[in-house]
Structures are given as C-alpha cells and as structure tokens.
Amino acid sequence: MAQSSDYWIYEVPPFAILILTVVATECLVGIVANGIVMAVNVVPWVQKKAVSINTRILLLLSIFRIGFQSIILVETTFFIFKDSFYDSVSYCFSKVSFVFLNYCDLWFTALLSFFHCVKIANFSYRLFLKLKWRISGLMPWLLCLSVFISLSFSVFFCKDTYIVYNNNSQSSNIFNLTMYMIETNVVNVASLLSLGILPPLIMSTAATTLLIFSLRRHTLHMRNSATGSRDPSRESHMRAIKETSCFLILYISNAAVLFVYMSNVVNASFFWSVALKIVLPSYPAGHSILLIQNNPGLRRAWKQLQSQIHLYLQSRF
User: Fold this and answer.
1) On the CB side of 190, how many CA atoms lie within 13 Å of its CA?
2) Angle ∠(233,239,240) on CA atoms, nearest 5
3) Nearest-angstrom CA–CA distance, 76 and 57
4) How far is it between the farthest Cα atoms of the chain?
5) Which of 21, 48, 227, 298 lies 20 to 30 angstroms, CA to CA, from 268?
6) At 174, which helix (H) or strand (E)?
7) Which helix (H) or strand (E) holds 177?
8) pLDDT, tens digit, for every residue of 154-174?
9) d(CA 57, CA 3)
C-alpha cells in the first residue's frame, strides 16, 4: 500500500491536481446550473401541462449539457490518473459520447436562437411570416432531426484510427505527466467536424444576427418616436441586444475551440492541450448561468436554492 501511495504522489504532481480542480469546479458549476434549468423546465412535464417549445429546448439542452460536463470530468480524471485510458475501449465510447453531446449542444442552441428569431423578429417578408405561423409545429421535428444528425456524424469517430505512442523521454514528460501523441487523419476529422459544426454555427449566427438587426431597428424607431428622456421599453431592448450579442460571441468561440480540440491539431503541445481542456467546460456553464440570470423563472429558482443552502448551512453549523 505504501508503494502504491508513493507511486501516485510521484506520478500526479500539484500542477495536475490544479488542472483537475479547475476543470472539476467548472463542471460542477455547469451541472448545478443546468440542473436548475432542467428542474424548472421539467415541472410542466410532471404536472402534465402544456409544454412550450422554448421549455422543451431548454430541457433537452440542460440534460445533454449535464451529460457533457460529466464526460469532461471523467475524461480529464483519466487523462491525469490513468494513462491506459487512451488504449482502452472506454476511450472510443468517451470520444463518441463527447462528440454526440457537443453536436447536440450546438444544434439545440442554434434551434433556440432560430426559434427566438422567428418569434421575436419583425420582418414583413412573406416566407418569414409563413415560417412564424408554422414554427411551433416544425420545432419538434427539427429537434429530432438534430439528434439524428448528431448521432450519425459522431459514430464516425468510433471508426477512426488513433495510433498512440507512449514516449518516456524527458521532452515528453512535462510536470511528470506522460504526454500522448495521437495520430489521425486530420482531413477526415476536419470534414466530419465541418459537417457537424458548420450547419448549426451558420444557423445560429444568421438567426442571432437577424434578431439583433430587428431589435436594433425597432429600438431606433422607438427612440425617434419617444417623447420622454427615458423609456424603459427601449432600455429593455438595448439590454436584449447586448445579451444576444454576448450569447453569439460565446457560441462562436465554443465552436472554434471544439473544432481545434477535436481535430487534434494541438495535441502535441502540452500547454494548448491543457488550455483547451480548461476552456471547453466553461461555455456550457457560462451560457447556462446567463440563461438563469436572464430568465425570471430560472432566476427565482436559483434564489430559492441559495436560500435553502443558506438555511441548511445555518442548521448544520
């Protein structure tokens, strides 16, 4: 037992523990935030009430993000503590699950932006008006189609060939962590990633841009016709524009980071490999926190949870 303990102390330095702590904190924050989103949006299902499209999307998004955060936490733990993880069948399952959950996340977020754009934006085009009338009936089919597309493209990552080399030289052993060089067909991976990432990215970018343009145009119209010096409605529109722009920046950044991470372009670099592992879980957590802050029902549930935790801590201590 003593030898085993000494082995772990030597193999896992404080720097690795710091990485795991940061990633675990991000994942736990994301799991809690998405748990709140899931709990609030699952209530109508339990009560058998009419469930809105927005509620369905948020519920699916929160469930898949909890799964993604869990995969990231497990993968990072194996990355630090168990070198043989990359040689086992579990790596294939982890890789496919990772890609599938990320693709679903991208698609659900894109469909949420698309739904908000169609419902909120004001354009007089005939096709847009027809789409606004039928969007509620189309969204369940689009959600099912997005899951099918995500699963179809993610399965291909299981068939890819990863040749793993364990290099024990000093240059590859940084902070006592054994680095792995993973060879793969970058062109094939890039094409799969493009097919899985670009369509929802284009959809989300286009829908969010149109929504911002519509809100901006309406805000300018309100400012020109305003009689008072301060209009709460105009201020709410400006706040919505800032929040939507922030969501778009986060979404594009996450898609770019995911593309770089999955294409194994920087796997030879210890710094960038660790940096991407730290950055990846931050988007689902950050986006969910913003959703909670901007949604009255979610914000109220978060405050209730805070008060219950405070009362629990007071009773225990």
Assistant:
1) 5
2) 90
3) 28
4) 79
5) 21
6) strand 173-174
7) strand 177-178
8) 887 776 444 433 343 333 344
9) 51
